[in-house]
Protein backbone atom coordinates (compact mmCIF):
# COMPACT_ATOMS: atom_id res chain seq x y z
CA UNK A 1 0.00 0.00 0.00
CA UNK A 2 1.30 3.47 -0.81
CA UNK A 3 0.67 6.07 1.86
CA UNK A 4 -0.96 9.01 0.04
CA UNK A 5 -3.18 10.61 2.67
CA UNK A 6 -2.07 11.30 6.24
CA UNK A 7 -4.14 12.38 9.23
CA UNK A 8 -2.39 14.16 12.08
CA UNK A 9 -4.26 14.30 15.38
CA UNK A 10 -3.08 17.12 17.63
CA UNK A 11 -1.52 20.28 16.21
CA UNK A 12 0.77 21.44 18.99
CA UNK A 13 4.51 21.76 18.58
CA UNK A 14 5.04 18.16 17.42
CA UNK A 15 1.80 17.67 15.46
CA UNK A 16 2.27 20.86 13.47
CA UNK A 17 5.83 19.85 12.57
CA UNK A 18 4.67 16.37 11.50
CA UNK A 19 1.87 17.84 9.36
CA UNK A 20 4.33 20.29 7.78
CA UNK A 21 6.85 17.64 6.69
CA UNK A 22 4.06 15.42 5.29
CA UNK A 23 2.65 18.27 3.18
CA UNK A 24 6.14 19.24 2.01
CA UNK A 25 6.73 15.63 0.94
CA UNK A 26 3.71 15.79 -1.39
CA UNK A 27 1.22 13.96 0.85
CA UNK A 28 -2.35 15.10 1.26
CA UNK A 29 -2.50 15.96 4.98
CA UNK A 30 -5.48 16.56 7.24
CA UNK A 31 -4.94 17.99 10.70
CA UNK A 32 -7.41 17.54 13.51
CA UNK A 33 -7.60 19.59 16.70
CA UNK A 34 -10.27 19.68 19.39
CA UNK A 35 -11.22 23.34 18.89
CA UNK A 36 -11.11 26.03 16.20
CA UNK A 37 -8.85 28.07 18.46
CA UNK A 38 -6.18 25.31 18.69
CA UNK A 39 -6.58 24.61 14.98
CA UNK A 40 -5.92 28.26 14.12
CA UNK A 41 -2.82 28.35 16.35
CA UNK A 42 -1.51 25.18 14.72
CA UNK A 43 -2.16 26.49 11.21
CA UNK A 44 -0.31 29.71 12.02
CA UNK A 45 2.65 27.72 13.37
CA UNK A 46 2.79 25.57 10.22
CA UNK A 47 2.53 28.55 7.86
CA UNK A 48 5.21 30.42 9.84
CA UNK A 49 7.57 27.46 9.67
CA UNK A 50 6.93 26.94 5.93
CA UNK A 51 7.72 30.63 5.38
CA UNK A 52 10.96 30.26 7.37
CA UNK A 53 11.93 27.22 5.27
CA UNK A 54 11.15 29.15 2.07
CA UNK A 55 13.32 32.08 3.18
CA UNK A 56 16.15 29.65 3.97
CA UNK A 57 15.77 27.94 0.56
CA UNK A 58 16.03 31.30 -1.22
CA UNK A 59 18.85 32.75 0.88
CA UNK A 60 20.99 29.69 1.67
CA UNK A 61 20.24 27.22 -1.10
CA UNK A 62 19.90 30.01 -3.70
CA UNK A 63 16.62 28.54 -4.88
CA UNK A 64 14.69 30.51 -7.49
CA UNK A 65 12.28 32.71 -5.41
CA UNK A 66 9.31 32.06 -7.72
CA UNK A 67 9.88 28.31 -7.50
CA UNK A 68 10.29 28.46 -3.69
CA UNK A 69 7.06 30.46 -3.34
CA UNK A 70 5.21 28.04 -5.60
CA UNK A 71 6.42 25.05 -3.56
CA UNK A 72 5.31 26.71 -0.35
CA UNK A 73 1.86 27.42 -1.85
CA UNK A 74 1.63 23.77 -2.97
CA UNK A 75 2.48 22.56 0.55
CA UNK A 76 -0.18 24.85 2.03
CA UNK A 77 -2.64 23.55 -0.57
CA UNK A 78 -2.04 19.94 0.54
CA UNK A 79 -3.05 20.78 4.13
CA UNK A 80 -6.60 20.80 5.41
CA UNK A 81 -7.87 21.38 8.93
CA UNK A 82 -10.79 19.96 10.87
CA UNK A 83 -12.21 19.51 14.35
CA UNK A 84 -14.15 16.38 13.24
CA UNK A 85 -12.39 13.05 13.77
CA UNK A 86 -14.68 11.48 11.10
CA UNK A 87 -12.85 13.53 8.45
CA UNK A 88 -9.83 11.23 8.93
CA UNK A 89 -11.71 8.09 7.97
CA UNK A 90 -10.10 7.59 4.55
CA UNK A 91 -6.51 8.30 5.64
CA UNK A 92 -3.84 5.68 4.88
CA UNK A 93 -1.86 6.68 7.97
CA UNK A 94 -2.92 8.49 11.13
CA UNK A 95 -0.18 9.96 13.34
CA UNK A 96 -1.33 10.94 16.82
CA UNK A 97 0.51 13.70 18.67
CA UNK A 98 -1.87 14.63 21.50
CA UNK A 99 -0.86 15.08 25.14
CA UNK A 100 1.09 12.30 26.86
CA UNK A 101 -1.89 10.80 28.68
CA UNK A 102 -2.45 7.08 28.22
CA UNK A 103 -6.20 7.23 28.90
CA UNK A 104 -6.82 10.05 26.47
CA UNK A 105 -4.75 8.36 23.78
CA UNK A 106 -6.57 5.05 24.25
CA UNK A 107 -9.99 6.79 24.01
CA UNK A 108 -8.88 8.44 20.79
CA UNK A 109 -7.63 5.18 19.27
CA UNK A 110 -10.91 3.41 20.09
CA UNK A 111 -12.79 6.13 18.17
CA UNK A 112 -10.33 6.08 15.26
CA UNK A 113 -10.51 2.28 15.08
CA UNK A 114 -14.28 2.46 14.60
CA UNK A 115 -14.04 5.24 12.00
CA UNK A 116 -11.05 4.44 9.81
CA UNK A 117 -10.81 1.92 6.99
CA UNK A 118 -9.30 -1.45 8.06
CA UNK A 119 -6.06 -0.81 6.17
CA UNK A 120 -5.24 2.48 7.96
CA UNK A 121 -2.00 2.37 9.93
CA UNK A 122 -2.07 4.09 13.35
CA UNK A 123 1.07 5.62 14.85
CA UNK A 124 1.71 7.41 18.10
CA UNK A 125 4.36 10.08 18.51
CA UNK A 126 4.57 9.20 22.21
CA UNK A 127 8.04 9.37 23.72
CA UNK A 128 7.43 6.90 26.53
CA UNK A 129 3.96 5.30 26.63
CA UNK A 130 3.85 1.63 25.63
CA UNK A 131 2.94 1.19 21.96
CA UNK A 132 1.70 -2.32 22.68
CA UNK A 133 -0.66 -1.02 25.37
CA UNK A 134 -2.04 1.68 23.07
CA UNK A 135 -2.46 -0.72 20.14
CA UNK A 136 -4.25 -3.25 22.36
CA UNK A 137 -7.40 -1.10 22.49
CA UNK A 138 -7.78 -1.37 18.70
CA UNK A 139 -8.55 -4.33 16.42
CA UNK A 140 -5.44 -3.58 14.36
CA UNK A 141 -2.48 -4.08 16.69
CA UNK A 142 -0.57 -5.41 13.64
CA UNK A 143 -1.04 -1.99 11.99
CA UNK A 144 -0.08 -0.03 15.08
CA UNK A 145 3.40 1.36 15.79
CA UNK A 146 5.31 4.28 17.26
CA UNK A 147 6.73 7.13 15.17
CA UNK A 148 8.72 9.29 17.57
CA UNK A 149 9.86 12.56 16.00
CA UNK A 150 12.22 15.13 17.53
CA UNK A 151 11.72 18.82 18.20
CA UNK A 152 11.87 20.88 15.99
CA UNK A 153 10.39 18.31 13.62
CA UNK A 154 11.15 20.13 10.33
CA UNK A 155 14.84 20.38 11.31
CA UNK A 156 15.74 17.21 13.25
CA UNK A 157 16.62 14.38 10.88
CA UNK A 158 15.68 11.39 13.04
CA UNK A 159 12.53 9.40 13.63
CA UNK A 160 12.33 6.38 15.93
CA UNK A 161 10.05 3.67 14.55
CA UNK A 162 8.75 1.59 17.44
CA UNK A 163 7.68 -1.99 17.05
CA UNK A 164 4.94 -3.09 19.44
CA UNK A 165 4.72 -6.79 20.32
CA UNK A 166 2.13 -7.35 17.55
CA UNK A 167 3.30 -4.78 14.95
CA UNK A 168 3.71 -6.59 11.62
CA UNK A 169 6.81 -6.51 9.46
CA UNK A 170 4.64 -5.13 6.64
CA UNK A 171 3.67 -2.14 8.81
CA UNK A 172 7.31 -1.55 9.75
CA UNK A 173 8.23 -1.64 6.07
CA UNK A 174 5.51 0.94 5.24
CA UNK A 175 6.71 3.22 8.01
CA UNK A 176 10.34 3.02 6.97
CA UNK A 177 9.27 4.04 3.45
CA UNK A 178 7.13 6.86 4.86
CA UNK A 179 10.02 8.12 7.04
CA UNK A 180 12.28 8.29 4.02
CA UNK A 181 9.61 10.10 2.01
CA UNK A 182 9.29 12.82 4.67
CA UNK A 183 13.07 13.25 4.74
CA UNK A 184 13.90 11.45 7.99
CA UNK A 185 16.35 8.71 8.85
CA UNK A 186 14.50 5.95 10.69
CA UNK A 187 15.95 3.83 13.46
CA UNK A 188 13.90 0.88 14.69
CA UNK A 189 13.50 0.17 18.40
CA UNK A 190 11.59 -2.28 20.55
CA UNK A 191 8.70 -1.05 22.66
CA UNK A 192 10.61 -0.16 25.82
CA UNK A 193 10.08 3.05 27.77
CA UNK A 194 12.20 5.86 26.25
CA UNK A 195 13.14 3.76 23.19
CA UNK A 196 16.75 4.62 22.20
CA UNK A 197 17.22 8.39 22.36
CA UNK A 198 15.47 9.21 25.63
CA UNK A 199 17.11 6.27 27.43
CA UNK A 200 20.44 7.95 26.66
CA UNK A 201 19.35 11.60 26.78
CA UNK A 202 17.38 11.70 30.04
CA UNK A 203 20.21 10.57 32.40
CA UNK A 204 22.53 13.11 30.71
CA UNK A 205 20.02 15.92 31.28
CA UNK A 206 19.49 14.82 34.88
CA UNK A 207 23.25 14.78 35.54
CA UNK A 208 23.36 18.39 34.35
CA UNK A 209 20.58 19.31 36.81
CA UNK A 210 22.52 17.57 39.59
CA UNK A 211 25.57 19.71 38.74
CA UNK A 212 23.36 22.77 39.30
CA UNK A 213 21.96 21.32 42.54
CA UNK A 214 25.46 20.64 43.83
CA UNK A 215 26.72 24.08 42.83
CA UNK A 216 29.48 22.56 40.73
CA UNK A 217 29.27 25.25 38.03
CA UNK A 218 26.92 27.99 36.87
CA UNK A 219 24.02 27.31 34.51
CA UNK A 220 25.75 29.23 31.73
CA UNK A 221 29.08 27.40 32.24
CA UNK A 222 27.47 23.95 32.23
CA UNK A 223 25.81 24.77 28.89
CA UNK A 224 28.94 26.34 27.47
CA UNK A 225 30.88 23.24 28.55
CA UNK A 226 28.80 20.86 26.47
CA UNK A 227 28.44 23.21 23.50
CA UNK A 228 32.11 24.06 23.14
CA UNK A 229 33.54 20.90 24.66
CA UNK A 230 31.42 18.40 22.78
CA UNK A 231 29.94 20.38 19.88
CA UNK A 232 26.31 20.03 20.98
CA UNK A 233 24.02 22.68 19.40
CA UNK A 234 22.47 23.42 22.80
CA UNK A 235 23.71 22.87 26.34
CA UNK A 236 21.70 20.43 28.52
CA UNK A 237 19.94 23.16 30.52
CA UNK A 238 19.01 25.10 27.36
CA UNK A 239 17.73 21.83 25.92
CA UNK A 240 15.64 21.16 29.04
CA UNK A 241 14.01 24.59 28.63
CA UNK A 242 13.47 23.85 24.92
CA UNK A 243 11.89 20.40 25.47
CA UNK A 244 9.94 21.68 28.51
CA UNK A 245 10.54 21.13 32.22
CA UNK A 246 7.00 19.75 32.59
CA UNK A 247 7.42 17.37 29.64
CA UNK A 248 10.75 16.11 30.98
CA UNK A 249 9.30 15.64 34.45
CA UNK A 250 6.43 13.53 33.06
CA UNK A 251 8.88 11.48 30.98
CA UNK A 252 10.97 10.83 34.11
CA UNK A 253 7.94 9.66 36.08
CA UNK A 254 7.11 7.09 33.39
CA UNK A 255 10.72 5.98 32.93
CA UNK A 256 11.31 5.59 36.67
CA UNK A 257 8.08 3.62 36.97
CA UNK A 258 9.29 1.30 34.18
CA UNK A 259 12.95 0.81 35.16
CA UNK A 260 12.98 1.62 38.91
CA UNK A 261 16.49 2.93 38.35
CA UNK A 262 18.08 6.06 39.87
CA UNK A 263 19.21 6.97 36.35
CA UNK A 264 15.64 8.09 35.62
CA UNK A 265 14.69 9.49 39.05
CA UNK A 266 13.75 13.16 38.67
CA UNK A 267 16.27 15.35 40.52
CA UNK A 268 14.45 17.36 43.25
CA UNK A 269 15.18 20.64 41.42
CA UNK A 270 13.36 19.39 38.30
CA UNK A 271 10.29 18.54 40.36
CA UNK A 272 10.36 21.90 42.16
CA UNK A 273 10.70 23.80 38.88
CA UNK A 274 7.80 21.81 37.45
CA UNK A 275 5.64 22.62 40.50
CA UNK A 276 6.66 26.30 40.38
CA UNK A 277 5.54 26.59 36.74
CA UNK A 278 9.09 27.19 35.50
CA UNK A 279 8.46 25.07 32.41
CA UNK A 280 11.11 26.62 30.17
CA UNK A 281 10.62 28.57 26.95
CA UNK A 282 6.89 27.89 26.79
CA UNK A 283 6.26 29.77 30.10
CA UNK A 284 9.07 32.30 29.59
CA UNK A 285 11.15 30.99 32.51
CA UNK A 286 13.04 27.79 33.28
CA UNK A 287 16.79 27.53 33.79
CA UNK A 288 16.82 30.82 31.87
CA UNK A 289 14.56 33.87 31.88
CA UNK A 290 13.37 34.55 28.31
CA UNK A 291 11.92 38.03 28.93
CA UNK A 292 14.27 39.13 26.18
CA UNK A 293 14.16 36.04 23.92
CA UNK A 294 17.32 37.11 22.08
CA UNK A 295 19.26 37.29 25.34
CA UNK A 296 18.15 34.64 27.87
CA UNK A 297 19.48 35.27 31.38
CA UNK A 298 20.24 32.40 33.80
CA UNK A 299 17.71 32.17 36.65
CA UNK A 300 18.69 32.27 40.31
CA UNK A 301 17.33 28.91 41.49
CA UNK A 302 17.47 28.36 45.23
N1 LIG B 1 12.19 24.45 8.16
C1 LIG B 1 13.39 24.16 7.61
N2 LIG B 1 14.58 24.53 8.16
C2 LIG B 1 14.53 25.25 9.29
C3 LIG B 1 13.31 25.60 9.89
C4 LIG B 1 12.11 25.18 9.27
N3 LIG B 1 10.92 25.44 9.79
N4 LIG B 1 13.60 26.28 11.01
C5 LIG B 1 14.93 26.38 11.10
N5 LIG B 1 15.49 25.76 10.04
C6 LIG B 1 16.92 25.62 9.76
C7 LIG B 1 17.58 26.97 9.73
O1 LIG B 1 17.49 27.59 8.46
C8 LIG B 1 19.02 26.60 10.04
O2 LIG B 1 19.62 26.05 8.91
P1 LIG B 1 21.22 26.17 8.66
O3 LIG B 1 21.90 25.46 9.80
O4 LIG B 1 21.46 25.53 7.35
O5 LIG B 1 21.49 27.64 8.70
C9 LIG B 1 18.84 25.47 11.05
O6 LIG B 1 17.53 24.93 10.83
C10 LIG B 1 18.93 25.98 12.48
O7 LIG B 1 17.90 26.94 12.72
P2 LIG B 1 18.11 28.39 13.35
O8 LIG B 1 19.33 29.05 12.76
O9 LIG B 1 16.83 29.11 13.29
O10 LIG B 1 18.35 28.12 14.89
P3 LIG B 1 19.62 27.60 15.63
O11 LIG B 1 20.86 27.57 14.82
O12 LIG B 1 19.61 28.36 16.90
O13 LIG B 1 19.24 26.07 15.91
C11 LIG B 1 18.01 24.25 16.78
C12 LIG B 1 18.05 25.75 16.56
C13 LIG B 1 17.80 23.54 15.45
C14 LIG B 1 16.80 23.98 17.67
C15 LIG B 1 19.36 23.77 17.41
O14 LIG B 1 19.65 24.56 18.53
C16 LIG B 1 19.32 22.33 17.83
O15 LIG B 1 19.51 21.45 17.02
N6 LIG B 1 19.08 22.08 19.15
C17 LIG B 1 18.96 20.76 19.69
C18 LIG B 1 17.55 20.28 19.50
C19 LIG B 1 17.36 18.88 20.03
O16 LIG B 1 18.24 18.26 20.61
N7 LIG B 1 16.14 18.37 19.83
C20 LIG B 1 15.75 17.09 20.33
C21 LIG B 1 15.05 17.28 21.62
S1 LIG B 1 14.61 15.74 22.36
C22 LIG B 1 13.09 15.40 21.72
O17 LIG B 1 12.53 16.13 20.95
C23 LIG B 1 12.50 14.11 22.16
C24 LIG B 1 11.47 14.27 23.22
O18 LIG B 1 10.84 13.04 23.43
C25 LIG B 1 12.02 14.78 24.53
Short description:
The chain has 302 residues and is of the alpha/beta class.
Task: Explain how this protein is built.
This protein is α/β, with parallel strands linked by helices. It folds into two domains: 5-190, NAD(P)-binding Rossmann-like Domain (Rossmann fold), CATH 3.40.50; 198-286, N-(1-d-carboxylethyl)-l-norvaline Dehydrogenase, domain 2. It is 47% helix and 15% strand. The protein is globular and about 55 Å long. The structure holds 3-hydroxybutanoyl-coenzyme A (3HC). The site of 3-hydroxybutanoyl-coenzyme A has 17 residues, from helix 2 and helix 9.
Task: Please describe the topology of this protein.
Blueprint: E1 5-9, H1 13-24, E2 28-32, H2 36-59, H3 65-78, E3 79-82, E4 93-96, H4 102-115, E5 121-124, H5 131-135, E6 144-149, E7 158-163, H6 169-181, E8 185-190, H7 197-213, H8 219-230, H9 236-243, H10 245-259, H11 268-275, E9 288-289, E10 297-298
Parallel strand pairs: 1-2, 1-4, 2-3, 4-5, 5-6, 7-8
Antiparallel strand pairs: 6-7, 9-10
3-hydroxybutanoyl-coenzyme A binds next to helix 2 and helix 9.
Amino acid sequence: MAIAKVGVVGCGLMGSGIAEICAKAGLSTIVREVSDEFLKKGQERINGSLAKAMKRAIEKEKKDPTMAQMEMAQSIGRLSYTTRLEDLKDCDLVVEAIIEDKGQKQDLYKQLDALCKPSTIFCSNTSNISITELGAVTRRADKFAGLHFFNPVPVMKLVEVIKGVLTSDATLGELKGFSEKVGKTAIVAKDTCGFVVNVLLVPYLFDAIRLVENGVASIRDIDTGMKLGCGYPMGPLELLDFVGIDTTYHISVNMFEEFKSDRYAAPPLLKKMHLAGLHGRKTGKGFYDYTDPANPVPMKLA
